[in-house]
Amino acid sequence: MGVPKRKPSTSRQRMRRAYNSVLHLPQISSCPQCAAPYVPHRVCPACGYYNSRQVLNVSALA
Q: Residue 53 sits in which domain range?
């Protein structure tokens, strides 16, 4: 059975594990109000709706 001869350095361990954060990209959903793409559990940037009610007035932001 293969056994490592030396302990991997902290730097090498962190370089190996750094790629795991790249794999978890944010999922994109379509807004039920305007069908624009948005990140779930956030206010829709196109229409300002969250959970079927208007939270932001988008015309004032534009």
A: 31-62
pLDDT by residue (tens digit) across 8-27? 999 999 999 988 877 777 78
Confirm whether 14 is domain-assigned. Answer: no
Phi, psi of 27 (to 5 degrees): -80, 145
Contact 38, 29 (CB under 8 A): yes
Total number of domains in the chain: 1
Is 57 among the domain residues?
yes
Paired sense of beta strands 53-54 and 49-50, if any = antiparallel
Q: How is residue 44 written in tokens? A: 């829709």
**Does the residue 8 lie in any domain?**
no
Stated pTM of the model? 0.55
Whether the CB-CB separation of 37 and 28 falls below 8 Å is answered with yes
